Structure formats: structure tokens, C-alpha cells
Amino acid sequence: MLKKLENKSVLILGLGREGMSSLKYFLRHYPQNQLAVADQLAFERLSVETQSLLKKYSQVKTFLGKNYLTVLDNYDVIIRTPGISPFLTALTRAKKQGKFVISQTQLFFELFPGKIIGITGTKGKSTTTKLIYEILRQAKRDVFLVGNIGLPALDVLDKAKPESLAVYELSSHQLADLSRGPDIAVILNIVPEHLDYYQDKDEYMEAKGQITFHQGPDDYLIFNPQYPNPKKLAARSKAQKRYISLEQEVGPGAFVKDGFIEVNDSNSAEIIMPTAEVPLKGAFNLENVCAAIMATRVLGVDIPIQVQAIKAFKSLPHRLEFGGEYKGISFYNDSLATV
After folding, report:
1. pTM across the whole model
2. Of 53, 143, 211, 317, which has the highest C-beta tally within 10 A?
3. Gap between the Cα atoms of 94 and 76, Å rounded
4. How far apart are CA 295 and CA 128, in angstroms?
5. pLDDT score of 114 more than 60
6. Which residues cross the membrane (predicted)?
7. Between the CA atoms of 324, 327, 328 and 329, what dihedral angle is there, to the nearest 10 degrees?
8. Measured between alpha carbons, how far is 262 from 235 in angstroms, rounded to an integer?
9. CA neighbours closer than 13 Å in the CB half-sphere of residue 199
């Protein structure tokens, strides 16, 4: 991987949060490379921070506006940001010409020295990601929160050590061209979404499946076998399976039964905590908790630490977030709910 980047001309495609993170990383580690950025926005429409950075590093070439894709042929390496589809004709042509097209996610997976816990699904991934992170933080692990609700992944790479853990929320856009799986993958329920980005439902499902298609027998996959789409993806995975369920006892896995969250690792179940002590509203959040329990259990976190972190957990902004009470009526902000 590193040899493919050394002394190459590099184009960062997309100047959002992740694109700027990639630019800063390459300025730190590959200052000798010819660097350029491209984005469909005109300079004056970029964020103030982005404008300032581009002015500071005048050696970075900029290609902005509607013709930003026409320069792909001039660069050896193209770093694609998640908002830009890997299926664009210009990118497909660049790959056929032998250009090295990669994403920040791919680069991070290749270079991160520790273990990666990746979480995907149509809904619930942010809450599950943060739950896993908080449990590991409670366990005093060296853990980083990266992805959509954490820092851009390359921002933490310089601080990472072999014992470090990265909890990574992964959208279908980040997964679409992934070529290496996480050590632990969590697939929550998947229903069709982003069909303005993908050609059809099957292409969307295939993108989601990349989180586990490249896992090996030493890795772990956590999912609910009662959901048809995750079950289909899991059938193509070589990873060890760990299950979650709200409706039936599963093993090895975590499940809800008679008002308790339990774990079954062998032939006997062990109670983790009463569901009434989970501070999150909604049955679906119990499933997110089960997923977090299994992911951290695989990493050796003890039950008392898991319970302590779960009890202290607060809803993320705009996700069944308690707003207040008026005349005996509780009001919740769930403005991010779309399905």
C-alpha cells in the first residue's frame, strides 16, 4: 500500500470533512508528492476553513466547478470521498486506465495497526457505534471513535498503536469499494435506501455486504438471523457468527427474554441486565444494546463494565432524544428518523 503512494501524483476527489482530512494526512506524510484536490463546488462556496487551508498550501493544485472530473487522467492516485459514487463513469474509466482509486476508509483499513470494529445497517448504526465506544472507554481501552459520528479516520492514525481499537460507523458509500474487512463486523437490519446513489436495491445490498465479504475465519460477524437481508450477506461470510435477537434465544449471542438481556455463549444463558435499566427508548434500541454487548464481549470486556456503560448512556442528538415534558406529555426529538 505505502509503495503505491510514494512519489505519486495524488488527487483528492471531494472537499468535504473527509476530503480535507485526507489532504491534511498527505501534506503531513507525503509532502514530496504532487497533490491536488477536485470538487464540484466553486472556491467561494467551500467552507471558510477549506478556503484558508488551500490558500495556505498554495502548492496544492485545485480543480473546482462543474468540470472537476476531467482531470482524473492526470493523476496516479485518486482518493475518493464517500459522497462521490465509485460507479461514476469517470472513475470507472480511470480504474481501467490503471489509476489507483482508493477511499480514506480503504487506506485506514490497510494502515491501522490495531483492531477495527465496523458497524453498518440502514438505521441504528450511530447509536450502536457510540455504545460500543463508550463500553470500551469504560473498560479503559485505547479506543478511537471514527467515521460519521467520530473523527475522520485518518485523523487518528498517527496516534494509533497495536493495542488500539477503532470503532468505525460505516455507511454503504464508505463500504462500496472496500477490499479488507474489520476484525469485528456488526450488521444491523438493512432495508433499501440511497437508491438515488445506487442503480438498484441489489447494488445497495452488495455495498453493505463488503463489511463482511472480506473477513476471514479469525474475524467475527454479529447480526440478527431473523432479518433476511443481513442473513443473506452473512451466508457469504467466512467470519465466526455471533447472533442478536429480540424474539428468540440465540447462541452464541445476545437476546431479550422475559424482560432481561441475556447472553448464551455455550449451552447456558447468562443474564446481563433487566431491559428496564436500559435508558434508551424503543425495542430497536435493545437490539443495538445486544449488538454492543456481543462486540465488546468478543474483546473480553466483563459484564459489570458493560452494564455500567449502558446505564450511563444518553441518546444521541435527534435520535429519540428527550426534549422535555409538558402537562404530563413527554416530547422526543427523532428528526433523523427516515425509515
Report:
1. 0.90
2. 211
3. 9
4. 10
5. yes
6. none
7. -60
8. 25
9. 7
All three cell numbers of 338: 427516515
| Distance, CA of 213 to CA of 179 (rounded, Å) | 9
In this structure, the number of other CB atoms found within 10 A of the CB of residue 16 comes to: 17
Spatial contact of 112 and 181, defined as CB atoms under 8 Å apart: no
- 316-326 confidence digits (pLDDT tens): 765 666 677 76
Taking the C-alpha atoms of residue 221 and residue 215, their distance in angstroms, rounded to an integer, is 9
- Whether 10 and 72 have beta carbons less than 8 Å apart is answered as no
Instruction: State residue 116 phi and psi, 5-degree precision.
Output: -115, 130
Element (H, E) at 255: strand 253-257
Ordered domains of the chain (ranges, CATH): 2-104 (3.40.50.720), 112-311 (3.40.1190.10)
Cα separation, 322 vs 304, in Å, equals 26
**How is residue 173 written as a grid cell?**
458509500
Predicted local distance difference test score (pLDDT) of residue 176: 85
At 300 the three-state DSSP class reads coil
Q: How far is CA 84 from the centre of its chain?
A: 16
Alpha-helix residue ranges (DSSP H) falling in 38-124: 48-56, 89-96, 104-111
List Cα–Cα distances, 240 to 60, 113, 223, 253, in angstroms.
Answer: 45, 22, 11, 11
User: Is 60 exceeded by the pLDDT of residue 222?
Assistant: yes
Residue 161 vs residues 36, 125, 264, 313: alpha-carbon distances, Å: 30, 25, 32, 27
Give the mean pLDDT of the chain.
91
User: Which is it for the CA torsion 140, 211, 161, 76, positive or negative?
Assistant: negative
Q: In whole angstroms, how far apart are CA 23 and each of 36, 95, 211? A: 9, 21, 25
